[in-house]
């Protein structure tokens, strides 16, 4: 069959689709990944075939220019920590629409609107005629292209299903302005199509979150093991030498580095971990490194090192709670100290890791030199954290791999044909 994947056009979202794309390819299916020109090299760098559609997304310009504090205020609302009251659900959905989905459907977006991206994606889908479209929950253009080409389609989640949870809660409560439906209805009319909830929730959901972490929703879904892909990588020479003392990774993830980075706490973090008898590997870019004065002798600054190569040598990791970073640590059974940002599901991830006994959480407002030192000491000296991390590792190994769910996707496509 022919399979079209449509991630949101940033590196972490592209990386999220790579393992399943390769599983489909190895199973003998034709695979294409469509996105803005910004991510073409990320796709081809993974050895997969890219289809560039629309103008460059220029996500950084959008974040810098619009909608600014309003968007971030909506995202940092406690709504991300659980199912909210209906009124707060409506507020969160509006923020989600303004911040991500409107990049594809709103002509007022600061980078010029991306109706061209939607139209080119639909044109490609109608010409190539995929049997199945796998789309990112914040890139509904993929669902539009699936309907326009008659393909079966499924959402491929990148983390907790907040979109599904919010949509179901919104639909069950008092109906407020439904901006998503309004924009999608207008877009679908261009192709003589009508709106239905599958355009937001999919015919199926591929969920990479483990069962004990997943939001329980009444949606048709298949679980898939999160096998993180970290981009093109080369193992540096220094990493091939065994560490002489416990090694700790400090990272803020790809999204934090490229788009959402708050560098104000980095200096304190480095200073705190450097006081331990450990080797610290801090994966920080040039701007982040510039915030640090004198680099302690036991801290190695690197712009990038592949986590799948680094973490097997680590005794602990300190990070921001991002799905990709969490998944790398989980796969390798590494205890985690999470200082969660409030962007998507970082708070949920931190709470789940703590509940499983695999790590600790410190909120940014509680972050001090003593609190970091105490938490890291506990993480390195308490055996139960390593056991908890091993338990998560075992639970992931028992979850279906991307190759295991290919037959379910084949059945979905066959049903539509």
Automatic annotation (TrEMBL):
CDD domains: GT1_Gtf-like (cd03784). Keywords: Antibiotic biosynthesis, Glycosyltransferase, Transferase. The keyword Glycosyltransferase applies. Residues 22-253 form the Erythromycin biosynthesis protein CIII-like N-terminal domain. SUPFAM superfamilies: UDP-Glycosyltransferase/glycogen phosphorylase (SSF53756). The keyword Glycosyltransferase applies. Residues 269-412 form the Erythromycin biosynthesis protein CIII-like C-terminal domain. Pfam families: EryCIII-like_C, EryCIII-like_N. Belongs to the glycosyltransferase 28 family. PANTHER family: STEROL 3-BETA-GLUCOSYLTRANSFERASE, STEROL 3-BETA-GLUCOSYLTRANSFERASE UGT80A2. This is Glycosyltransferase DesVII/glycosyltransferase OleGII/desosaminyltransferase OleGI. It comes from Kibdelosporangium persicum.
């Amino acid at each position: 069959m022919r399979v079209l994947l449509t991630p949101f056009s940033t590196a972490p979202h592209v990386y999220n689709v790579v393992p399943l794309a390769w599983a489909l390819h190895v199973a003998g299916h034709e695979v294409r990944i469509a996105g803005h020109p910004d991510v073409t090299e990320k796709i081809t760098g993974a050895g997969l075939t890219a289809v560039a559609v629309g103008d460059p997304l220029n996500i950084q310009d959008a974040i810098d220019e619009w909608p600014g504090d309003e968007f971030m205020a909506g995202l940092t609302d406690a709504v991300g920590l659980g199912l909210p009251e209906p009124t707060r659900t409506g507020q969160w959905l509006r923020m989600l629409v303004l911040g991500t989905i409107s990049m594809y459907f709103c002509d007022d977006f600061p980078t010029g609107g991306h109706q061209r991206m939607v139209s080119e994606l639909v044109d490609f889908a109608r010409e190539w005629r995929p049997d199945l479209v796998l789309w990112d929950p914040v890139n509904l253009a993929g669902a539009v292209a699936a309907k326009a080409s008659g393909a079966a389609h499924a959402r491929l989640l990148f983390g907790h299903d907040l979109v599904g949870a919010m949509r179901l809660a919104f639909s069950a409560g008092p109906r407020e302005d439904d901006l998503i439906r309004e924009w999608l209805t207008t877009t679908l009319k261009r192709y003589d199509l009508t709106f239905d909830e599958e355009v937001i929730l999919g015919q199926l959901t591929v969920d990479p979150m483990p069962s004990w972490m997943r939001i329980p929703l009444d949606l048709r879904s298949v679980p898939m093991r999160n096998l993180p892909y970290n981009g093109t990588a080369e193992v540096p020479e220094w990493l091939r030498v065994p560490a002489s003392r416990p090694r700790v990774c400090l990272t803020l993830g790809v999204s934090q580095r490229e788009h959402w980075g708050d560098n104000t706490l980095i200096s304190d973090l480095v200073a705190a971990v450097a006081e331990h008898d450990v080797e610290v590997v801090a994966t920080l870019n040039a701007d982040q490194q510039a915030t640090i004065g004198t680099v302690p002798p036991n801290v190695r600054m690197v712009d990038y090192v592949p986590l799948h190569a680094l973490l097997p040598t680590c005794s602990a990791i300190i990070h921001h709670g991002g799905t990709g970073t969490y998944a790398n640590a989980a796969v390798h059974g590494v205890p985690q100290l999470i200082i969660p940002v409030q962007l998507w599901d970082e708070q949920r991830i931190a709470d789940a890791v703590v509940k499983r006994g695999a790590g600790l959480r410190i909120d940014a407002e509680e972050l001090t030199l003593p609190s970091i030192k105490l938490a890291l000491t506990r993480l390195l000296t308490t055996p139960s954290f390593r056991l908890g991390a091993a338990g998560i590792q075992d639970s992931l190994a028992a979850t279906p791999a991307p190759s295991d769910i290919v037959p379910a996707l084949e059945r979905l496509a066959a049903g539509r044909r």
